[in-house]
Design a protein that fits this description.
alpha+beta; binds alpha-L-arabinofuranose; 647 residues
Length: 647
């Protein structure tokens, strides 16, 4: 971004009047205020952040993965390939699987290899995007089912068959064995495919066919797509909530997210139907979530089911959300132990049972889990209460150091909200997760929502919110609301926009923060607003620093925080109206002589919206010098973040 030195243009500097003026009233606010929420919705994991390029790598897709269109099966995203007059059979079998959690595998039976062979091609997630000269790590588990070693040609090639890279492996072992190879394509192609061709008569079984770019985020094996991960990292989130959302409680008891199914070697993990109507491989599992949090310096905030399924399971949202089911009481002890084991997995020593599994995965040091959420937007029924209390009491007794987060339904008010809060009061749950998706007008009318919250009650985690749109006006309404969150940062300890990621071709929920294709990313106006707030957080809030000429209007809001680590003073000024304004403040107690400030401004037409073709809404950064009294021209429809160095 272009940095311009602007002196006396955006910021008018007036001489310092009261060098030793008293600082304005202040209070400490949460150090974890703005973070992110990652849910595997909209292909956010497989086909998204998780860098695996092969779709249906374990041949586990099934018709039940999808709701309306039940056309998925073990061959989804795979094609049968015969070349050069060859013939043979391709099949899916399950007699002697690699692992019970991963029951299906592909077999290639080659009757006549002809001049070239018989095999399969994977078409990835709408094509495999490869770049010339980059390196890609291929791996496959194979089991020879005939007597003579079978040569397998592994290639990256175009839809029409042009070969970009190839190598050969020889399946020799009669038991499952992992084979690896590196492929470096000669050309860039967004719609390439991975092809495996058996080149001699015989039979071989294949499973967990994988292709990863070598350059994942921080070069982690089984890692994250670098560009998407970097965008999340750029937000400088203080925490990351994962893996959902409704994904966590699942639709039906069999579909709950069970963290133990998602750790260990990927070939041993148990993929399943995603509540958002696709398959989740869980290649991005709990270990990878913790590692990613550490890599982006965000505190992990896992959400475990409150032992009940979604109230809307089975489409019962049409009849009042009667689909909630509870884990049978006979299984609750084991379930609660699973939750306690999660804490040991994250924080236990490498010598403990679950800490050892973390260490075996490559992280002997604890991950430093501090927060744990129980439940997501669950209906507050007797079934829920009974189970929540059992989990809460047991976890709290065993791990009083963990900050537990309860849930208050899917809306900002109403029955589940009230019942959820009352229940939390009763149990003295220290944090409550509120969710709401509303119009921008609602957000603007409710910027003072937390001003009157009882400070003696639970603290708030605003786990999901969005203003139902990606225009600049939507983003500014959120910005205005976020000034209210900062003002109430003593009671609102965390907040995260939702959902975060959406694959353009597979979106179940709009709006989202970041849209992407296989090769590009599209930050929304909302993303930039989130970034401007979350990369400019403070731990002290100052009241009444900014005044607007003429007493201001409802369209004008502001907040001022100090980041004590850097000593920077950060002013956020929002104008959701069509009329520009003037903001003034006495900063003489913070800055004496001229100090450098960065001025980041996002503004434009309220209806402006980014697209993959045109990024019309983006912030601009300039520099200014600030002294004691300051005067700032606030553009119409804008958010300005002014970060002043005081040291
Ligand atoms: O963020 C999308 C969904 O909205 C979440 O899964 C759920 O918690 C909420 O209803």
């Amino acid at each position: 971004m272009k940095i311009r030195i602007l002196i006396f243009v955006l910021i008018a500097i007036v001489c310092t009047s009261t060098v030793n003026a008293a600082k304005p009233a202040s209070k400490r606010i949460s150090e974890d205020l703005f973070g992110v929420f990652f849910e595997d919705i909209n292909y956010a994991a497989d086909g998204g952040l998780y860098a695996e390029l092969v779709q249906n790598r374990s041949f586990e897709y099934s018709p039940s993965d999808r709701k309306e269109i039940k056309d998925w099966n073990s061959f989804t995203a795979w094609q049968y390939v015969t070349e050069g007059f060859a013939y043979g059979l391709v099949n899916v079998e399950s007699d002697a699987p690699l692992n019970a959690n991963n029951p299906h595998y592909l077999t290639l039976s080659i009757e006549d290899a002809g001049t070239s062979g018989v095999g399969v091609a994977n078409t990835g997630f709408d094509g495999i995007a490869i770049k010339a000269g980059e390196k890609y790590d291929f791996s496959v588990f194979a089991r020879l089912m005939s007597d003579i070693p079978l040569p397998l040609s592994v290639r990256l090639q175009s839809e029409k068959g042009e070969i970009y890279a190839q190598t050969e492996i020889s399946a020799r072992a009669k038991t499952w064995k992992k084979y690896t190879a590196m492929l470096s394509p000669s050309k860039t192609d967004d719609k390439a495919r991975l092809v495996i061709i058996a080149k001699a008569r015989g039979k071989v079984a294949l499973d967990v066919v994988s292709l990863f770019p070598e350059k994942t985020f921080k070069n982690r094996p089984n890692g994250m797509r670098a560009d998407l991960a970097q965008m999340i990292c750029d937000l400088k989130p203080k925490f990351m909530r994962f893996p959902g959302g409704c994904l966590v409680h699942g639709d039906g008891l069999g579909n709950m997210y069970r963290w133990k199914d998602t750790i260990g070697p990927v070939e041993q993990r148990k993929g399943q139907r995603n509540i958002w109507r696709y398959h989740q491989s869980v290649g991005l599992g709990y270990y990878e979530y913790f590692q990613f949090c550490e890599d982006i310096k965000a505190k992990p905030v896992p959400v475990v089911p409150a032992a009940v399924s979604c109230q809307n399971s089975g489409g019962t949202w049409r009849i009042g959300g009667t689909g909630q089911r509870g884990i049978p009481m006979a299984e609750m002890r084991a379930y609660i132990q699973d939750v306690i084991d999660l804490i040991e997995y994250a924080n236990g020593p490498a010598t403990s049972k679950w800490g050892a599994k973390r260490a075996a995965a490559g992280h002997p040091k604890p991950f430093g889990l501090e927060y744990l959420a129980i439940g997501n937007e669950d209906k507050i029924t007797p079934v829920f209460r009974e189970r929540f209390k059992m989990i809460y009491d047991a976890v709290h007794a065993k791990h009083p150091e963990i900050k537990l987060i309860g849930t208050a339904g899917p809306f900002h008010s109403g029955e589940d909200f009230d019942l959820g809060w009352n229940f939390a009061d009763q149990l003295k749950v220290p944090f409550i997760d509120e969710h709401y998706y509303e119009t921008p007008e609602w957000f603007l009318a409710n910027t003072a929502r937390y001003d009157s919250y009882d400070r003696a009650k639970a603290k708030i985690y605003l786990g999901e919110y969005a203003s139902k749109g990606n225009t600049l006006f939507n983003a500014l309404a959120e910005a205005s609301y976020m000034t209210g969150l900062e003002r109430n940062g003593d009671v609102v300890t965390m907040a995260s926009y939702a959902p975060m990621l959406a694959n353009k071709e597979h979106t179940q929920w709009n709006p989202d923060l970041i849209y992407f294709t296989n090769t590009t990313t599209m930050p929304t106006a909302n993303y930039f607003v989130q970034k401007m707030f979350s990369s400019n957080q403070g731990d002290i809030y100052y009241s009444d620093v900014v005044k607007f000429d003429g007493g201001g209007s409802k369209a004008l809001t502001s907040s001022v925080v100090e980041d004590t680590a850097s000593g920077d003073l950060i002013l956020k000024i929002v104008n959701t109206g069509a009329v520009s304004s003037v903001a003034r403040g006495d900063l003489s107690s913070f800055v004496g002589a001229g100090k450098k400030a960065s001025v980041e401004v996002i503004s434009g037409e309220p209806t402006a919206k980014n697209s993959f073709d045109e990024m019309v809404v983006q912030p601009k950064v300039s520099e200014a010098l600030i002294t004691g009294d300051f005067v700032y021209s606030v553009p119409a429809y804008s958010l300005s973040v002014i970060r002043v160095k005081t040291r």
